[in-house]
Each structure stands twice: as C-alpha cells, then as structure tokens.
C-alpha cells in the first residue's frame, strides 16, 4: 500500500532565488538547455542523482545557497538570464504562432485525453511511443500557444522498470512515486480544499484527487485514486500503467474518460474540441452523452452534438493495441449509468460493437471512438489507408475507395530530442531563433552550411556521451549478476567510438521483429566482426509483463549479446526509458527499424535519430516512406510484400544484409578525407535538412489545428 506522501510544505530558498520554485514546477526546463544547465550548476551531485528540479530544491542544504550567493555574481546573472527567457516564453501577450494564424479565435481549449504522457524520465507516467508522442504533443501545443488542456492518470507505480538477470530473463520492478517530490500540485477548489471528483462503479463511488502538471503554457490534469476517501480495494486503480487485469484496465479507462470529463466540468473549462488520443479515453463519450440527455436532448441529437466537436486518433493496426473488453464486463460497469440516462444498456453497448448487428463480440473502444468522432485519423499516410480499410464498415455509405480515416503523420518535439552539440551547431549556423522556423524546409537547407569537421566533432561528442552511459549501465548490471572487478574492467574497453554503431530501441512487441537481423547468424557475424570494418549494434527495450513472446525476444538477444561469440559486438542496455532513448538517438550512426509492414503505424524514434544526424535503415513502414528520398537513409526491401511471414522475414533480412554489405558499411568507412567520412556526412546533412522540418511536432500541431481542431471548433 502507498507510503504517505511528503507533506506539501513549501520548499525553502533565499528570496534572491525565489522564482526557482516556479521554474521547477514548469517542465519548460526539460527542453531548455540553459534552465537545465542552471539547475545542474546549483548542485551537480543532486542533479545527477535526481534529474528532477523539485527533488533538487527539496534536498539542497541551506548553507549551500549562501555559497551560491557569495560566488561573485555569475550564478545570479545566469539565474536572471534563465528567468528572463522563461518570462519571455510565458508572456501572455507574446505573438504566438497560434495568434498569428488564428487571430480571431475566441473559443475554448482543445481537451486532449491520453492514458500516458511521456514528458521526462523523472515522471514515470509513460510506457512507450504513444506516451512520448502525447508529451511531445503537449510541448508543441505550448510552443504554438494553442489553447490546450491535457487529461490523464497519475500512476502511483507507473510502468515497470526492467532488470535482466544473467540468463536473460526480464524482471519487473515497480517503484513508488512520491507525488510531492515531482513537479505536481494538487488542484484546489475555490474553498481551498483538494479537488476530488467521483465516478460511479457497481455498488460504490470511487473518488479521485486531481493533480496539475504544468508544461510551458499548458496544463495537464491527472487523476489519482490512491486517497484515504477510497476503499482499500479501489485505491490501486491508478497504480499501474497498462495493468494486465482486464477488469482493472476497464476501471482505469472508465476513470480516465468519465472522471476526465468531470474534471473539466468541475473546473468550468468548456472545451471547444475533444481529442481522444487512442481509444483508452473513449468512455468520455458516455459522460457527455449522459449530460446531453439530462439537458433534454434526444438520443440522436446528443450523438450529433458530440460528433460535431470530437476528434480521434488511432495509433495502431495491431489488434491487441485496439482496446476491447468482454461485452458482459462492460455491461456490468455501465448498467447503472444507462439507468441514470434513462436508456437501455444495450444502446450504449451497441456503440462499441466492431460490427453492427448481432453475434457475440467484444466492446471495442476504437469502434466507439470512430463512431462518435467527426474527424478520425491515423498517424502516417500509410497508416491512414490501412485504418480506413480496417474501419470503413463503420461509415455508412462509404465506398471502397473512400478514405474515411484521415492521416496526420506524427512528429517529435525537436527541442526535446536534439542533442546538446548538434543543437549548438544549429544555433551557430542557422541562428538562435531556429524554433520559429521549425517547419520551414528552406530554412533547414541551411544545414548544408555546417562545416564537415564541426558536424563530425559534434556527432562524436554525442556518441561519446552515449558510450559512457552504456558502460556505466553495463557495470551496474554485471555487478548485479555477480561478475568480478576484472570482468567488469572489460567494459571500459567495450564500444570503440571509431566503430560504426547501430541502434535498435523500442518496445519489444513482436511485430517490431527485434531479432530479424539474426536470421542468418553467420552472415551477420561476418558483417559485425569484419576486422577492417567492424560494426556494433546496441539494443534496448522492454516487453510488456504479459507478453511472453516479447520477453523471449529480450532473452534471445540478451544471450547473443553476452553469451555468444558476438559478445563485444552486440549490446543490450536494460530499462529503456526516455533518458536512454535520448542518448541513443543522439549518439548512434544508424537507426535500425524492422517492423512487419504495415503494422508500425508511424514510429517516431527514427525521426529523433535523423534530427541528430543518424541515418535510418528501415522497412518501408509508418513514417519512413514519406521521408526516404534515397539520399537520407536506406529502405529495407522497399515494400515488397509476401503473404507468408517466413518468406517476408527471409526477404527483409536478406535485404538488410545486402544493404549493410554494399552500402552502409562502405559509406561509413569509405571516402575518408582527413579522417572524415565524406559520403556519410553528406547523407547526415540531407537527413537533418529534410526530416527536421517535415517531422517536427510543430508541423504536426499545425496539421491538427488546420485539419481538425479549428474546423471542429467552428473557427476557420
Ligand atoms: C520515441 C520513443 C518511443 C517510440 O519509438 P518507436 O520508434 O515509435 O517505436 C518509445 N519509447 C521511448 C522511450 C521513446 O523515446
């Protein structure tokens, strides 16, 4: 059961630094190097320990402040610069991109619902790509100045931390977060009490406290059931992200949708647009339906009213990713709300049927969301088409050639993912105002002006930081496995920075085929262990606790990495998270992506890598066909499709070996001038120049505003 949280007592600090409190509680610092640098300058050890400004400020010794005040003014002047930048960013009068594009907009905010938000490694309320995308979406909404509010759950234990034992078995560790040591504040009512909302479950009401998380100009509101007002058995509803038990998962998703809509009502926030990021939050539609029926609308009017300003984004064509529950289970939970709405439960349940009409079938949240949204989209052009085929039957009158599910290709928050050294080069060459030109392809052509030696040096710096982190993590892991100091000393010789380094990191879902490149072990070994032109591959990723085949893949690759003759050429780093992801995408030379086409709806890690100059080596799936131009990376198999999975694996792995042997390795080691790989550098620049403007979250938000939010809000 939960530890009692630290009391919310105020953090103490000298008056001179009083605004650090505000800064620590706004995640703006997480994508602003100057702010991060300042926190780490206050106390390097505390920063290294926590990577969380709130924790840092709580733990700092009072006498330490005096030292900072006495240091001759340089700390003070840096403090003023950070605060000046912060105030400039937060200025309510600022001419934001949104104000420029939609000067007459007077409507309410976009309410964005997501079951996970990946904002920073210190806030473990995310699992993988969907969460990181939600986090980047919120950050880009803030940059744009879009009226926006996010709704999610605050998980006491988050998602598991991964340990791997010496046999390659994945172990699941659950930490317990003390919310008062994170940049979270309880939301208060007008009378100063904690805001608590309640949701009806069979035979009881469950209460949830509301916490606020500030991301630049925007706010996220997160629900937490771990409070004394609840029965012991209900307190863990918001304990684990992607909890295995179906019943518990349903409890969470009812809370997210219904509770989330109630937060907005309690806080008198009237959204102009409701955006469901994936189907987990689709029960918000039932809550809105209940309200409209209570106001006296007919059933059909209520559905029409909801549809008008509701948007839905689907994120996967993989069946397991489209949340569905047993009809009887859903009936048990919605029966009483149906009664209070004065409708038959069957009417609510029909809204979640994948196929209209009879026959036993599960209650599908994607089907519910698609039915009650007037704008639905996939997350790449290819995925929009695949989703249209998958769900066309839900659109009465849609013809075979119609594309009822639109496409807005994902993007990533450039300031979050750009590494320190590459960012400095960009600022020196293109100017400090690059964020204002984030979506402009002409502007990014300026990358061509970066000097080759500078680009290579910046890349090697970032690679060096990655290698140091990996070595550190390996020593930690080997120590846990009981290795000797001599065995661990070997680690400091692992990962030669001059060797071509490939990265592969993502969730270990089986469709991502992490083990594809091991199909022809001997051919791979010849590539990796070529004495003149060796190659290293670095893996990282977690498999869901219920995914046995995924965990088998972890074990397989782990054993190749540490118990085969490829030891020293293949590496596996435990506990993939945003921090590992950031180091990997900033430090490797090649980003490998081998999903079973067309199951990777978009993929975003390859975008992050490309922005830092890594070259993508990818199946023609998700975002990659939109980005590949033949000069900014390589395409495996180029979309050749086989119905037989074994033949497809054979084809794709053969194409991978062939590309490695004929193109990737020669481009890296060949045509060196003064030690610089000239062909490689040209591709790096081409990748950055083409991929930064087209796959930034700023571009993604522009697309959502133009195609979904503004039309649905009744703006322009
Ligand atoms: C970007 C990111 C992902 C998504 O990677 P894909 O390529 O979309 O699979 C997953 N996890 C973390 C931690 C990330 O940063």
Spell out the blueprint of helices and strands:
Layout: H1 20-24, H2 33-42, H3 44-50, H4 53-59, H5 62-69, H6 74-90, H7 97-101, E1 110-113, H8 129-144, E2 148-153, E3 161-164, E4 170-173, E5 184-186, E6 196-201, E7 204-215, E8 218-224, H9 246-266, E9 273-277, H10 284-294, H11 299-308, E10 310-313, E11 324-325, H12 327-341, H13 345-350, E12 363-364, H14 365-371, E13 375-378, H15 381-391, E14 406-407, H16 414-417, H17 420-430, H18 441-444, H19 452-480, H20 485-489, E15 500-505, H21 521-528, E16 535-540, H22 548-562, E17 570-573, H23 578-587, E18 590-593, H24 605-611, E19 615-619, H25 624-627, E20 633-636, H26 645-669, E21 672-673, E22 676-677, H27 678-694, H28 697-713
Bound molecules: pyridoxal-5'-phosphate.
What would you note in describing this structure?
- It is a single chain.
- The protein has 28 helices and 22 strands.
- A hairpin with a 5-residue loop joins strand 3 and strand 4.
- The longest helix is centred in the middle third of the chain and has 29 residues, at 452-480.
- The radius of gyration is 26 Å and the shape is globular.
- Bound molecules: pyridoxal-5'-phosphate.
- Pyridoxal-5'-phosphate (PLP) binds at residues 128-129, 132, 506, 577-578, 581, 603-605, 608.
């Amino acid at each position: 059961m939960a530890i009692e949280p630290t009391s919310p007592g105020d953090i103490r600090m000298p008056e001179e630094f009083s605004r650090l409190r505000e800064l620590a509680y706004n995640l703006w610092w997480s994508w602003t190097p100057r702010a991060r640098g300042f926190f780490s300058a206050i106390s390097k050890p505390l920063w290294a320990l926590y990577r969380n400004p709130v924790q840092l400020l709580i733990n700092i010794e009072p006498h330490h402040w005096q030292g900072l005040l006495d240091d001759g003014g340089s700390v003070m002047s840096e403090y003023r610069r950070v605060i000046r930048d912060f105030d400039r960013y937060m200025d309510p009068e600022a001419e934001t991109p949104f104000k420029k594009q939609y000067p007459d907009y007077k409507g309410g905010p976009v309410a964005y619902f997501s079951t996970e938000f990946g904002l920073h490694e210190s806030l473990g309320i995310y699992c993988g790509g969907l969460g990181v995308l939600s986090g980047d979406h919120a950050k880009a909404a803030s940059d744009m100045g879009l009226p926006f509010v996010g709704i999610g759950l605050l998980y006491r234990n988050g998602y598991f931390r991964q340990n791997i034992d010496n046999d390659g078995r994945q172990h699941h560790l659950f930490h317990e977060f003390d919310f008062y040591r994170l940049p979270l504040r309880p939301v208060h009512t007008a009378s100063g009490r904690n805001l608590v909302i309640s949701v009806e479950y069979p035979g009881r009401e469950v209460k949830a406290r509301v916490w606020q998380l500030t991301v630049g100009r925007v706010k996220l509101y997160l629900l937490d059931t771990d409070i004394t007002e609840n029965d012991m058995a209900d307190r863990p509803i918001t304990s684990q992200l992607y909890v295995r038990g179906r019943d518990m998962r349903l409890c969470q998703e009812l809370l997210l949708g219904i509770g989330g809509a109630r937060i907005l009502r309690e806080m008198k926030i009237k959204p102009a647009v409701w955006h469901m990021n994936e189907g987990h939050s689709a029960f918000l539609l039932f809550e809105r339906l209940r309200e409209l029926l209570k106001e006296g609308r007919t059933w059909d009017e209520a559905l029409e009213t909801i549809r008008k300003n509701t948007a839905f984004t689907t994120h996967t064509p993989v069946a397991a990713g489209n949340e569905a529950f047993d009809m009887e289970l859903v009936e048990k939970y919605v029966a009483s709300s149906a009664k209070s709405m004065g409708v038959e439960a069957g009417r609510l349940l029909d809204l979640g049927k994948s196929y209209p009409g009879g026959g036993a079938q599960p209650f599908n949240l994607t089907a519910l969301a698609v039915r009650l949204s007037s704008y639905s989209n996939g997350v790449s052009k290819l995925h929009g088409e695949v989703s249209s085929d998958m769900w066309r039957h839900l659109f009465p009158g849609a013809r075979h050639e119609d594309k009822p599910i639109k496409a807005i290709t994902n993007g990533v928050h450039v300031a979050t993912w750009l590494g320190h050294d590459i960012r400095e080069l960009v600022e020196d060459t293109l100017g400090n105002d690059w964020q204002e030109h984030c979506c402009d392809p002409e502007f990014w052509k300026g990358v061509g002006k970066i000097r080759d030696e500078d680009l290579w040096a910046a890349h090697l710096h970032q690679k060096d930081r990655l290698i140091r982190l990996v070595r550190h993590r390996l020593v930690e892991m080997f120590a846990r496995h009981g290795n000797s100091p001599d065995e661990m000393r070997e680690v400091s010789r692992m990962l030669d920075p001059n060797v071509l380094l490939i990265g592969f990191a993502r969730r270990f879902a089986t469709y991502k085929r992490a083990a594809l490149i091991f199909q022809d072990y001997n051919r791979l070994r010849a590539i990796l262990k070529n004495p003149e032109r060796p190659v290293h591959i670095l893996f990282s990723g977690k498999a869901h606790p219920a995914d046995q085949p995924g965990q088998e893949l972890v074990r397989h690759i782990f054993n190749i990495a540490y118990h085969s003759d490829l030891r020293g050429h293949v590496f596996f780093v435990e506990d993939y998270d945003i921090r590992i992801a950031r180091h990997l995408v900033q430090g490797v030379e090649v980003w490998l992506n081998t999903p079973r086409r067309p199951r990777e709806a978009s993929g975003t890690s390859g975008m992050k890598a490309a922005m830092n100059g890594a070259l993508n080596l990818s199946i023609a799936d998700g975002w990659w066909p939109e980005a590949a131009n033949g000069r900014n990376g390589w395409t495996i198999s180029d979309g050749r499709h086989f119905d037989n999975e074994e033949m497809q694996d054979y084809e794709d792995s053969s194409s991978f070996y062939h590309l490695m042997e004929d193109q990737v390795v020669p481009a890296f080691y060949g045509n060196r001038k003064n030690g610089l790989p000239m062909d490689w550098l040209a591709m790096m620049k081409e990748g950055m120049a083409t991929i930064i403007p087209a796959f930034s979250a700023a571009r993604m938000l522009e697309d959502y505003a133009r195609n979904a939010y503004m039309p649905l809000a009744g703006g322009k």
